């Protein structure tokens, strides 16, 4: 079923998350429902607050939004975060929200840029 508005949240608002967040915030077909990072003062968290987007230092606040999210993007580069998000989706029976990880983000940003975009985190864990 086609979507006219993607409801998205981002986990990780640092060097990788901030450029992605800028693109998401500027897209008229995206509603950014929330941003999580352990550091409330990192650039992406400040940007989100400036744009009126919900921010949190607890990624489970975003995972807990359930089917109100279409896409939950994890750009932390931390395998334990990936696993905790998967577990949260399984535990709550959320079969709607898609979890997108850093490798997919790198691919999408590279396609938009027209050249390979290097991310801060090592993606070999994926």
UniProtKB/TrEMBL annotation:
Record Pfam families: NAD_binding_3
Name this protein carries in UniProt: Acetaldehyde dehydrogenase (Acetylating)
Gene3D superfamilies for the chain: NAD(P)-binding Rossmann-like Domain
Domain Aspartate/homoserine dehydrogenase NAD-binding, chain residue ranges per copy: 12-90
